[in-house]
Design goal:
Blueprint (H helix, E strand, L loop, with lengths): L1 E5 L8 H14 L4 E6 L4 H6 L7 H5 L5 H4 L1 E4 L2 E4 L4 H11 L7 H6 L8 E6 L5 H9 L2 E7 L2 H18 L6 E8 L6 H14 L11 H5 L7 H4 L4 H18 L1
Parallel strand pairs: 1-5, 1-6, 2-4, 2-5, 6-7
Antiparallel strand pairs: 3-4
């Protein structure tokens, strides 16, 4: 199973949008996908129009079984819901004297043979839950809005990532996804060029700015359901194809 954390310390870069649409696109492509919400805001279920009574926190604390914790969201797509219950889990993790960074990995091991991909949606910032997600994942996909401050945030995120890689060498920054790309804005193209110059093949084709992408979660739909012929659907389909192509390589 490939384990991809959608992560960047800065907020407002499209992490949940990317996690949801990547997971939905992979499922449509025939992959078995586990989408894990590691954010106390719990936006994943809302974006997919489903309601969860149980989720990730209940799984980790042993209050439910692995099967009951899963929420079927679409064909071949299951969700482990996040939300406010994760705040209590975060406190439990920080109180542990040893192995706190492995709590999530230990809990998710049970799903190894059931899915082809695990996609983790992480919160902004750098907290115990994000650290746990990164100790579980092997690949990081960093959405980067094409703004100067976000570019600086990516550099700082890389430094934090390196600290984890000392103890988890399998982890690597596999993909950088430029988001909110607008050809009409000169700065947008300039920052994209800087990313491509510095990070090379790690940079994916950009996701163009699209009102449809921002509207889709309000209807509880992925972009492939809400506006399948929109630029946003085309761009996330390109991301799905890039990632599945790498899987075959």
């Amino acid at each position: 199973m490939r384990k991809i954390a959608v992560a960047l310390s800065k907020g407002g870069v499209g992490k949940t949008t990317t996690a949801v649409n990547l997971a939905a696109g992979l499922a449509l492509a025939g992959q078995r996908v586990l989408l894990v919400d590691v954010d106390t805001q719990g936006q994943v279920t809302k974006a997919l129009g489903v309601q969860a009574m149980l989720g990730l926190a209940d799984l980790v604390t042993g209050e439910t079984t692995p099967a009951e914790a899963l929420l079927p969201a679409r064909e071949r797509l299951a969700v482990l819901a996040g939300g406010r219950a994760l705040a209590g889990l975060k406190r439990q993790i920080t109180r542990r004297d040893f192995g706190g960074e492995q709590v999530l990995a230990e809990a998710l091991t049970v799903y190894e043979d059931q899915f082809d991909f695990a996609i983790l949606d992480t919160a902004p910032g750098w907290d115990a839950l994000t650290v746990n997600a990164l100790f579980y994942a092997h690949e990081v996909l960093a959405p980067v809005s094409l703004e100067v401050l976000t570019l600086q945030g990516l550099i700082e995120f890389g430094t934090s990532l390196a600290a984890i890689q000392k103890y988890h060498p399998a982890l690597h920054l596999a993909y950088i996804l430029p988001t909110f790309f607008d050809r009409r804005v000169r700065k947008s193209a300039e920052i994209l060029e800087q990313l491509q110059s510095h990070y090379g093949e790690q940079v994916c084709a950009p996701v163009r700015y699209s009102v449809r992408l921002s509207e889709a979660p309000g209807y509880g739909q992925s972009i492939f359901e809400f506006a399948p012929h929109s630029p946003g659907a085309e761009d996330y389909q390109a991301l799905v194809e890039r990632i599945t192509r790498d899987d075959r390589a």
